[in-house]
Amino acid sequence: MKKTLTLFFITAALAAVLLSSPEFSITKVFLDKIEREYGAFAKRRAFALVQMMNESRDVDEMEKLEKVNEFFNQTPYASDKAIWGESDYWATRYEFIGKDKADCEDYVIAKYFTLKELGVPTSKLFMTYAKSIRYKTAHLVLTYYETPRSVPLVLDNYNYKILPASQRNDLIPIYSFSGDELFNAKQAQIGKMVPASTRQKRPWNELSITRSKE
């Protein structure tokens, strides 16, 4: 009986520390750290992120795209200058949630790494630089290719609806990068993003046109 009670209390203690399912979890220590640095709302958002990921891990890829896109698009847009006092700052998800403000690169980074952790192959995910015709500015979006020959789907913070690139006449694609090639994945989780090579990797418009079947 004593052994059973001891095991019960150990299990209860672990449940109190791991605030979600074993697949994706966040410790109370880390939640408290977020609250100290950014406040109670950031703490709730961090917990909500883990909950969303656990709810999404067994659904199909399209639903994962929709859930992740919707979650991060709830965060208001703001320029790097307004958020960080710098002209170009690439925030981590921790900083994204803490500040509850983001520019286009921050949305793409947060969505990319969350989808990667949810099991979406990185070979299907590209960070695409484009020109926004509406806003007359450079813009970054996340693009998803179901197959190498598919017209990509665009995950964007300007238009919250996930649409094929062929329906995004407001964007002129410039070039795309694989996230794993563009960033140091380890630093992406713990610190400021580190841009890698700027060579062109995958033209969006080259894969958006109709192709003959193999």
Attribute tags:
single chain; 214 residues; alpha+beta; C8orf32 fold; 5-stranded antiparallel β-sheet; 5 strands; disordered N terminus; disordered C terminus
Task: Write a concise synopsis of the structure shown.
This protein has 214 residues and is an alpha+beta fold. It has helices spanning 2-17, 28-38, 40-56, 61-73, 80-84, 93-99, 104-117, 179-182, 185-190, 204-208, and strands at 125-132, 137-144, 153-155, 163-164, 171-178.
Q: How would you classify the helix and strand content by structural class?
A: alpha+beta
Helix fraction bin: 40-55%
List segments where confidence is low: pLDDT < 50 over at least 5 consecutive residues: 2-21, 184-214
CATH class call = Alpha Beta
Task: Report the CATH topology name.
Answer: C8orf32 fold
Overall geometry comes to: globular
CATH architecture: Roll
* Total domain count: 1
Number of strands: 5
